[in-house]
Amino acid sequence: MRFVIVTGMSGAGKSTALKMLEDMGYFCVDNLPVPLIPKLAELFVVPGTEMNKAALGVDIRSGHSFAELERVLEELDGAAVKYEILYLESSDDVLIKRYKETRRFHPLSGSSGRVDRGIAEERKRLGFLKKKADYLIDTSHMLTRELKRELNKIYVQNKEYNNLYVTVLSFGFKYGLPSDADLVFDVRFLPNPYYIEELRSQSGNDAEVRNYVMGNEKAGIFLKQLTDMIKFLIPNYIAEGKTQLVIGIGCTGGKHRSVTLANELYEALESAESYGVRIEHRDIGKDAITKAR
Question: Which tens digit of pLDDT belongs to each residue from 91-135?
């Protein structure tokens, strides 16, 4: 029997995660009153039952009864009921943006309607759950399909997951540094395909540009040393409890060299099973837009 408690910050994707788990064959219940959780757990662990995978959504919407959750979990521990906690996290600025886009009120925003205050209060109340979580997924930079892929790793393929999600991000320095980057690498030391007429309109996603950039010996040396360093750093970040790692690779316009090296690094990391990896090209199309104006 696998019993998963899905929780975390409002707006971080709990409802979406529950729907995904349901598609994966889990019996799902959302927003059950906290005092009823032990009764539900009893039903899940009845010997001989056909129900062997269940997920329960619990969050701050439970109101006053949410304060009982810590005691209820201790009760389950005392009864030797096995359960896992999946905690979905997201940064404050992303949560605020999501609430503004949907025009919803945060459950704890109160009469003031201030989303930031509601988020701060929610973080305090959920602190004990975050510490107790078996799996922590930060959805700040995730697309829906990427969240599904990570949940599939954990709950279908049963792979080891170390709660770290890596974003490899290409960008152009002339459009500014990415504000959320943890590590930034400058590849402007490489020859610029922009000055090759037939390559100018293409990007690092095209084979011709990729071959031109990686055909330079320095590019291969840089990629190997960068990959070795990142692979050394990741286990240490995991040990420190880091859940998001954004690696920025920049060139002048974010279209040729940075895209090529970001793709190469992503390919070197994507086979990892113990953490998630995604690729994003922030500025790949901005050069064409700027010229059109």
Answer: 988 998 888 887 777 777 766 668 888 889 899 999 999 999 999
Other beta carbons less than 10 A from residue 2's beta carbon: 14
Task: Annotate 78-99 with b (16+ C-beta within 10 A) or e (fewer).
Answer: eeebebebbbbbbbeebbbebb
The first and second tokens of residue 293, run together, are: 């104006």
Between CA 285 and CA 116 the distance in angstroms is 33
Q: pTM for the whole thing?
A: 0.74
Instruction: Tell me the backbone φ, ψ of residue 244, rounded to 5 degrees.
Output: -130, 135
pLDDT tens per residue across span 11-57: 999 999 999 999 999 999 998 889 899 888 887 766 555 567 899 99
Query: Are the beta carbons of 125 and 69 closer than 8 angstroms?
Result: no
Rounded to an integer, what distance in angstroms lies between the CA atom of residue 181 and that of residue 273?
A: 23
Concatenating the DSSP letter of every residue in 151-212 gives HHHHHTS-----S-EEEEEEEEGGG---TT-SEEEE-TTSPPGGGSHHHHT--TTSHHHHHH
C-alpha dihedral sign at 99, 126, 131, 3: negative
Rounded-to-integer distance, Cα 29 and Cα 55, Å: 6
- Separation between Cα atoms, residue 29 and residue 52, nearest integer Å: 14
Is residue 113 within 8 Å of residue 32, measured between CB atoms? no
Q: DSSP state, 250?
A: E
Residue 185, token pair as written in the block:
């690498």
d(CA 228, CA 246): 16
CA–CA separation, 92 and 200 (whole Å): 39
